[in-house]
Amino acid sequence: MAPKVKSGNTPKVRVTADGKQLDATAVRRVSVDRAIDMADMFTLDLRNDRCVMSDNSALEPGKPVQIELGYQEGGGKFIRVMVGRVVALKGVFPRRGPMGLRVQGYSPDQLLTQGRKTRRFKGPITYSRVVEQVLAAPEYEGKLIVKVDPTEEQHEYVFQRNQTDMEFLMELAERVGFECYVRYHDSDPSQPALLRFGKPELESNPVRTLKKGENMLAFFPRTSVSLTPSGVTVMSWDPGERKVILGEAEGGDSPEEQASKKIGPLVEEVHEVPVRTEAEADALAVSIMQRRAIASIHAEALLPGNPDLLPGVVVEVKGVGQLFSRKYYVTRVIHDLTDAGFNTRLELRSVTLAHEKPEPQPAQNPQQGGGAAGAGGPGQGGAGAGGPG
Q1: Which CATH homologous superfamily contains domain 208-223+296-368?
Q2: Which residues of the chain have pLDDT under 70?
Q3: Fewer Cβ atoms within 10 Å of its own Cβ: the N or the C terminal residue of the chain?
Q4: Residue 255 falls in which region: left (phi positive, over 0), alpha (psi -120 to 50) or beta
Q5: What is the pLDDT of residues 89-126, one digit of tens each?
Q6: Residue 220 phi, psi (nearest 5)
Q7: Phi (first) and psi of residue 69, to 5 degrees
Q8: DSSP result, 311-353
Q9: Distances in Å between the alpha carbon of 266 and those of 59, 257, 259?
């Protein structure tokens, strides 16, 4: 697979399965889907002439797979975009036409989704300490580097209720406005994966500036007051005291929150999350309210293939007017390489409220507003046209 894309750069792929490099000419399509709130996934569509791929033991379920993307120009550097394991195979044996094999797999945090557990962590104990105890289990030894931001509130008990470890950790993160995700080392496959449990790094400097007509093919933002409730109510039940535990958070004075109040009492109610104290319920309500307010603008961006980009970083978007030109937090990255070209699609949320506008930008020359298909070098090369699917 080596289609020329509009920038003149030629993308390339290297797939290693169970330590063995696959024939690049057999790769028809590569899709890598990485997100903050779910396991990273990959899909490989392979030519399967004479059943060479379907009979390849290196592609059996459970075998490790590494995917690297890059460009032939600029030194031909590969960037590792996926490390995972095969979980499913699908054969394609049509009446006429070439045979194929679809290979699907997940990233290392699938390790935390194996098996459900019910247990109690006795306190007084903080959520951060619970996370450390979960990840101290023998099955994670040597496989994860753990980076945990401390939490302060002490809890008498913390229960894991028929949940995988990943579900449990993500629930704890949501209660305190944290994120929980696993990231492997992008340059050294021998290094263990990093598990991050902490605050979103919204204040970090942008890793990339994206501008319509230069290194961004298309941009689809959306803002709505329906995304910002006027308040959040958290309700739970204390079986010992036999009483309702209630936590509340009200919207602030931002235009988004005031507008949501004017169109009706859009109070979001949360009933399914167990909390044991009113302070814990209040903290969860405030955390949900803050996330809803900050995420008042969502967007999708379509870029020429860029294997450097990861979820969990900040980018700055320019050239799309004062309302939508701002900094965004990347929540999902999808790399898609086919015979037609190499695209990267981003899912974004604003890191500031919609009314908090950046400094006015110079007026864009209409002659530059068209869809120049990314004149970047390797890692920013062009791609086939088309909006996010």
Answers
A1: Bacteriophage T4, Gp27, baseplate hub, domain 3 (2.40.30.150)
A2: 1-8, 108-110, 185-190, 225-230, 251-269, 271-273, 290-296, 353-389
A3: C
A4: alpha
A5: 999 999 999 999 999 998 866 678 888 999 999 989 99
A6: -130, 85
A7: -125, 155
A8: TT-EEEEESSHHHH-SEEEEEEEEEEEETTEEEEEEEEEESS-
A9: 50, 10, 10
